[in-house]
Automatic annotation (TrEMBL), chain A:
Name of the protein: Two-component response regulator
SMART domains reported in the protein's UniProt record: REC
Chain positions with 4-aspartylphosphate modification: D51
Annotated Response regulatory domain residues: 2-118
A Gene Ontology BP annotation from the UniProt entry: phosphorelay signal transduction system
Organism of origin: Candidatus Methanoperedens nitratireducens
Record lineage: Archaea, Methanobacteriati, Methanobacteriota, Stenosarchaea group, Methanomicrobia
Superkingdom, taxonomy of origin: Archaea
Keywords, comma-separated and alphabetical: Phosphoprotein, Two-component regulatory system
UniProtKB/TrEMBL annotation, chain B:
GO molecular-function terms, A-Z: phosphorelay sensor kinase activity
GO biological process: regulation of DNA-templated transcription
SMART domains according to UniProt: GAF, HATPase_c, HisKA, PAC, PAS
PROSITE patterns hit by this protein: HIS_KIN, PAC, PAS
Top-rank lineage group of the source organism: Archaea
Chain ranges of the PAC domain: 226-276, 522-572
Listed EC numbers: 2.7.13.3
The keyword Phosphoprotein belongs to this UniProt entry's keyword annotation: yes
Domain (PAS): residue spans on this chain: 154-197, 573-631
Protein name: histidine kinase
Catalysis performed (reactions): ATP + protein L-histidine = ADP + protein N-phospho-L-histidine
Keyword annotations of the record: Kinase, Phosphoprotein, Transferase, Two-component regulatory system
Amino acid sequence: MKILIIEDNPQNMKLLAFVLKKYGHDVIEAFCGLEGVEKATDSHPELILMDIQLPDIDGLEVTKRIRAKEPVQKIPIMAITSYAMAGDREKVMEAGCNGYFEKPINPLTIMKDIEKVLEMKKP
Amino acid sequence: MTVLNDAEENNKRSILKLQRTARFFEALLRASADGIVITDAAKNIIFVNDTFCKFISCNRHNLIGTSIFVWLEKLSSNANEIWNELESQTKKNGIARDVEFRMNTDSDTRYFTVNSSLLEHVDIEETGLIISIWQDETERILTEKALAGAYAEKMEIFKAIVHTISDAVFWLDPEGNFIYVNESACKSLGYDHDELMKLKVFDVNPRADSARWNAVVRQFRKEKVFHAESIHRRKDGSEFPVEIVSSYIKLDNKEYFCGFGRDITERKHAEEFISRRNIQLRILSKAAQKINTVLEIPVIMQNLITSAMEITDSTAGTAGLIVNEKIVFSEYNENGKLFPIDYVFKKGYGVPGHVMETKSPYISNDARNDPYVIQDIRKTLCFNNLANVPILDRKGQMLGSFQIHNTKKHRQFDHSDIEMLQGLASSAAIALENARLMEDIRKVGKEKKSLSLILDKSLNEIYIFDSEKFRFTYVNSGGCKNLGYSLKSLRSMTFLDITPGYDEVLFRKYITPLIQHKKKKLLLYTDLRRANGSHYPIELHLQLIEQEGSHLFLAIIIDITERKRAEKALSLSEEKYRTLYETMAQGVIYHNESGTIISANFAAQKILGLSPGHLIGRTSIDPMWKAIHEDGSDFPGEKHPAMVALRTRKEVRNVVMGVFNPEVKEYRWIQVNAIPQTRYAETRPYQVYTTINDITELKRAKDEMQLANEDLRIINKIISTATGLLDINQILDTVLDECIKIVGLEGGTICFVEPDETLKLGAHRSTSKETIIDLTTNKIRIGECLCGAAARDLKPLILPDREAVIKFATREATRKEDIRYHAAFPLITRGKCVGVLCLFTRTDKKPDVKKLKIIELISSQVALSIRNAQLYEETKEYALTLEKKVAQRTKQLHESQLGLLNLMDDINKTAVELDKANKRLIELDLMKSMFIASTSHELRTPLNSIIGFTSILLEGWSGELTPEQREHIQIVNTSGKHLLSLINDVIDISKIEAGKLEVRVSRFNLKEVIDEVVSTLKQELNGKGLLVIIDVADMELNTDRRRLLQCIMNLFSNAVKFTEKGEIKIIAKSTNNEIEISIGDSGIGIKKEDIPKLFTPFVRLDSPLTAKTSGTGLGLYLSRKLTQEVLGGTINVESEYEKGSIFSLRIPREVKI
């Protein structure tokens, strides 16, 4: 699978990329929101893993933008965040994300978790 | 047994019911004063009460069951028709009202008003029964008819009487329409009957309009009588004065105003004439004095002009003397100012010239168009009308003339003016003659002969006598002739011998002003006695002259016999007017032989202020008159002149009485003459007629004149003092002193009336100490004792002697005073008595009645002053009270304002504080959120890498690991995880403390959660060889799964941590709404004293395993917090040291948000 990771922290990016590649997926890296939106539209990934805290536009905005663009509307987006406030989850889901994970992620189980979420969302 | 069908049965039952009901009401209806009949559909009478039976004089038994028609027919011809009508109306509307029946019975006719209604019964709808109630209206109707008849009759009689009388009679309705007018009314106004009836009162009375008429109507309704002078306008527009007397009458509930109008044109003329006459006569006599007491000719002429102007009310005048057959006017008086003029007229030239020819007076009321008037002179002097009168001497020679002019609009000069002016002219003639005579005498000087020549020439009688003994020194021929004495005889007589009216004392008194040279000439009137004893009236002009060194009296005497005769003739004609007037004004009342009034003329009604209705039928004994004597004492009815005349059978004349006139609400004084009238050959009078004249004004004038100047002065003083003062005590003292002075007594008191109807002693003079104490401590009530009685009766109380005083004096102290005369005057203002003034004496002095009258006169003035002073006091007090109240309120307001201000201040301050606090809180809140967020993010991010990469390494995804490497990385991994859990706990606690912990409620299976917890710690369990027993039913919960997991995980991991061997039991028990999950272990247990410390943060118990185990010290604290805050439940612990512990978590199965 082609997976786009939007994450500004390089170490986190390295971790995620390593794990996903280990599972045999293709990984596209974007280190800020705008890059993320661009790469999403250009490369058309099958899954997007996105950190909410981004330096330019935050993940919610990114989600909205991606969801607004025709061809890439339907790509599942998983939000990863360390935000712990009430209402965060709701905001994220409202923006258009399909799932929500809290940091730190468990690299060993991440894929399974993602699949579970996607499964649940399947019509 | 007869069998009745249902319907009949029902009917019968219904009727029975009705009858029972009817019987029930019978008792009530029987007693009714109205007749009650109940008829059925077949018009049969099924019930009738006693009263109705009486009405138609029939027995009940005969009525019941029979048709009502039978009876109605007998009593009235159309009764059936009316009944049918009543029935149909009742059936249609349910009721019929006020249907009238007339019944002719054997004895009389009776009138009934019938009201009827349908009689319905609860069980039966239509019974067809009608109940009719018969009210006997006979009495009322007959009375009405009688009254109507009576009124109609009265009206006819009244009309017959008034139709022919000479006074105009009008009947008006409240709107002013004429309801009736008599012939005289039509004639006086110049309309015919039909014309006048179409008009309203406004059309004939130019002074009346709606508003005034309405005001009059209102007054009428109150006073019932109306009397006034007004003006009527005839059809041709001309107006004439009328006297109207009207009364208010109510007939048949309609209001009428009946008025008598009398044309008073003649009377008004007479009044005007007489009044003008009186004035003129007064002026004339004054003028005669003025003219005849001066000697200088110019002065005589001036006085003549001014008198002429005054008498005729003219603006200008002039007088001239004839010199050389021409009349010269050299002085002109215009409005009192003298101007020199120079007009000379000869015979035939101008008006004066014309008068010289005719020797009679000339009037021109239109000088502009008068042929005799010299127009140039007229334009210069600007006069509109003139009167010129010649001055003729005794011989008929013209001495001069005088003329009066008017420059402004003036009434026409008429013959009465001429009469007056001629009177002046003759005075002037005499004066001029005398003046000339004096001049001649002076010229002649000492020569006796010449003197006698001059004196003999005069037509007047001239006497000269000495100033000491009044002996005659010379009498002229005229005098001798008239007296009938010779000069020789006269020389031995004195002046007093021929003047019967003078004695020496009196004469000397008269001549004193001459002797003292205070006057130059005297004008006197007296009689002279002739030699034959007869008298004749004379006008005496007396002067002092000097002759040969001695003073003599010169008397010029004018025989005024003729003049007197003329005057008498004049006064006779005046008398004619006066009589007419007085007749019109004289009231005449006729009494029958018992003294009852049988008729009273219009004037009598007016004087007494009573309508015929009030007069006729009354006697003079009737207390209604409230008759009084002049001194105020009651005039008993038997003493009334009419009664006296009847008793004595003689005329009674000139009785003066006071009677109360209710129209003007005051006493009127009348002079009464009563003349009894007897028929031929009878002894007892059959009637008395009294004439009454209203002499109120006359009496009043007399009374007033009788008040001496001194009295007037005192009154004025009192009144001005009283009104000028506002201090009550001053008023009372001043008034009392003056009043005592006036009446000439020595004692007096003034009390004033308090609101509680007691009398408080004010000023007092010559009152004993005892009385003062008595009156002050025990105040007199209105009605009590002497002053109380006056206050009650509102009229003066005069007690003329000791006995009377004692009779009235209720107070012991007053009785002891030995008062012999006591007069108490109530002080009344505006109908209210404000005090009493008492004057008394212990001597035998009795005050003059007139003086008492003065006191009465001023009493109302004094009362007013007292009232004003009282009001002033009240006002002052009230003002003070008000001031105090205002000050108080202001103070209160001020205080509350201050309080308010302080409060406001505090509130503001607090608000500011609150504001600050709020802001701080918000900041704090924000800070907390930021702290949590940043802690969360910052702390977790690196851990992500630590745990993540170590996990990858441990998986071998980055390559093979040596066992040592593995061990080391494992340590890093575990530490990282430990740190993470710590951070999570801290963050959770922070969230809870900040109230920002999210709760996510979902439905989930409990067993799944338990399994998850257990499987998470599988490794440790296996490692320790512990057994896990799970006794959890398959049940659903609806709560926060994550947090529940967290708590169970915490408890389970503790159990695993602190158990070395044995088992851990997880049991889930559910009660109604709750679930209890207990985790029991066989671990080291907890000491009793340590249990409280369990749930406190950062406290780890000292135990052998402490070092071995890892823990944050937060676990239980957080778990309890989470359970309480999020899951809504509790965590409890039971433990036995070294035996084991059971932690139980109890929560509601359904969490309610």
